[in-house]
Design goal:
Strand content: 35-45%
Oligomer: single chain
Radius of gyration: 43 Å
Largest sheet: 11 strands, mixed
Shape: rod-shaped
Order of helices and strands: HEEEEEEEEEEEEEEEEEEEEE
Number of strands: 21
Helix content: under 10%
């Protein structure tokens, strides 16, 4: 009986010794870091610029891992800040140009014995708005009259056609002189485009500019002037820069003329309506600048004054009084 008790008492102790020999499972393997962008799509920045940010997540960061951020357009994507986990802040400078621009912000995570991870987010900044034009010093909007003469190639002699026009609020008299109390934009248009209908001569369609070489606006014959009550011209402004835009819808022309005068003033005129220029295309016909057909020799010994007018020359003889 005593022997049985001793044997039974030894069983728990044997069980305890057996339990201490149980195998402990190994620790789970470390997982690699995972860098993920949380900002969807591109970042749209206004032309004024401002502060923007990119969100990200970093799973399983490594003990000695390092996160950084950089921009490829450092002249306008500035002051990157990635000191706060999960967010990269940066500044976008104002865009001074009237064209949109793009850049990239790259977020990178590097750690020992591992492959670097990164992603990039595009930053698209809108263009600066086109500034409103400076106010005009002289304006003639919805002018009542557009009158003029078609000279064909008689003046240009280079294959271009010449259209000489006035945009005005009062018009010209029957002899071609400016009427009193008016505003006049005098414009010489040069174009390779000939009229479609010589019985109803219109204007060349398109945008013509001052001194643009082959075609454009005549640099010598164009200027603005006003007339007083006696039709005397004053307030003359010769064009330093000029642009004339002409469109056509059927028989209706729309004309806009913008110019900077040599004295710094700016002029603006518009006209909408029918256009029918006088036909001076025949070099020897009605309205021709000259009826000469060759070279002539004249004795000018008694001539005291020579005056030049338009594209022809008028020789004016005065009595020999010294005047």
């Amino acid at each position: 009986m005593k022997s049985l008790f001793i044997c039974m008492a030894a069983l728990p102790l044997l069980f305890v010794f057996s339990s201490c020999k149980k195998t402990i499972p190994p620790a789970p393997a470390e997982r690699d870091p995972v860098l993920t962008c949380k900002t969807e799509g591109d970042i749209s920045a206004s032309h004024e610029g401002g502060n923007y940010s990119i969100a990200y997540s970093l799973e399983n960061p490594a003990k000695d891992g390092k996160l950084s951020a950089s921009a490829d357009k450092t002249e306008w994507i500035l002051n990157l800040d990635y000191n706060v986990a999960g967010i990269v802040k940066f500044e976008v400078a104002a865009n001074p140009d009237q064209t949109a621009r793009e850049g990239n912000v790259t977020v990178k995570y590097e750690y020992p014995d591992g492959k670097p991870q990164s992603f990039s987010v595009k930053v698209v900044q809108e263009a600066a708005p086109v500034p409103p034009p400076a106010p005009y010093d002289v304006e003639l909007l919805d002018a009542k009259i557009l009158t003029g003469i078609y000279y064909a190639g008689n003046i240009t002699e280079d294959g271009n056609m010449y259209y000489f026009i006035h945009i005005t609020d009062v018009g010209l008299d029957d002899d071609g002189y400016a009427l009193p109390n008016g505003k006049f934009f005098r414009i010489g248009l040069i174009s390779k485009e000939a009229p479609e209908d010589m019985n109803h001569i219109g204007l060349p369609v398109g945008t013509l500019r001052l001194g643009s070489g082959d075609g454009g606006i005549d640099t010598e014959e164009g200027y603005y002037f006003e007339t007083d009550a006696d039709s005397h011209a004053s307030d003359t402004g010769y064009y330093k820069e000029a642009e004339c835009t002409i469109s056509r819808d059927g028989s209706v022309y729309s004309v806009e003329f913008i110019a900077t005068f040599s004295d710094g003033r700016r002029g603006h005129a518009t006209y909408k309506g029918d256009v029918s220029l006088e036909d001076y295309s025949d070099p020897h016909g009605e309205g021709a600048m000259t009826t000469l057909t060759g070279d002539y020799v004249a004795d000018l010994s008694g001539t005291d004054t020579v005056e030049a007018i338009s594209w022809g020359i008028i020789l004016k003889t005065e009595p020999e009084t010294g005047s």
